[in-house]
Amino acid sequence: MTGDCVGLGIDRAGRLIQTKPAYGGNIVSVIMGATTPQLATVRPRMFEPLEPRDTLNGSVRKIELDGLTPARSRLVEHDADERAFDLDEADTVIAAGRDVGEAMEQLREAAALLDAAVGGDRGAAEAGLVPPSRQIGLLGRAVAPRLYVAVETEGDFEHAAASVKAAVILVFKSSAEPVTGTADVAVAGDWRETLPAFARTFAGSG
């Protein structure tokens, strides 16, 4: 079983070829299983969905079970916190940093204009601005949206490594200091003014 693959293939011998990033995405490993069955999971949005084929006909077989073994686990607690599955499939993702602070609601309003899913870096999660399930980074979720908007994020490797698959990375920083990490476009200035203006313009153009 290989998790978090970015590529899959079949060699001439019929073996599954699994491509997986390692060391925070600095290198890519090629893995071939020595036993069967061989299983793999892939990162969200790594492949385009296949078109359905009407020419395939499957058969349904009913299998009678001879009873089930007693359950070895039981539900102790159900976490009804905000789920983060929308981050995996969203075309636009906004990541908040710790310095967003009490202006989090203003960021969510801009996200609504962009039809964006909202997450945060480790600092935002530790500060309680976003639930731990919505943390983006090596210790959280990896995302691959068409547009990734980072607002006051720390920009360290732990956070940036989870967004490198985004098509466009846009960073908003209130300070005029150089932006660290990967960014296609960086906007300096008070994000409370620049982000809403960008969101209104972006929403109006679509």
Explained architecture:
This protein has about 210 residues and is of the alpha/beta class. It folds into 2 domains: about 1-40; about 85-205, Rossmann fold (3-Layer(aba) Sandwich). Helices cover about 20% and strands about 25% of the residues. The strands form 3 sheets. The chain has a 5-stranded parallel β-sheet with strand order 7-6-8-9-10. A 3-stranded antiparallel β-sheet has the order 2-3-4, with no helix packed on it. Helix 2 (about 105-115) packs parallel to helix 5. The longest helix has 15 residues, at about 190-205. The radius of gyration is 21 Å and the shape is globular.
Count of helical regions: 5
- Rg of Cα set: 21 Å
State the helicity in percent bands: 10-25%
Tell me the structural class. Answer: alpha/beta
Number of strands: 10
Query: From the 3D coordinates, which CATH architecture of the largest domain would you assign?
Result: 3-Layer(aba) Sandwich
Q: List the uncertain runs.
A: none
Terminus-to-terminus distance: 42 Å
Describe the largest sheet. Answer: 5 strands, parallel
Strand order of the largest sheet: 7-6-8-9-10
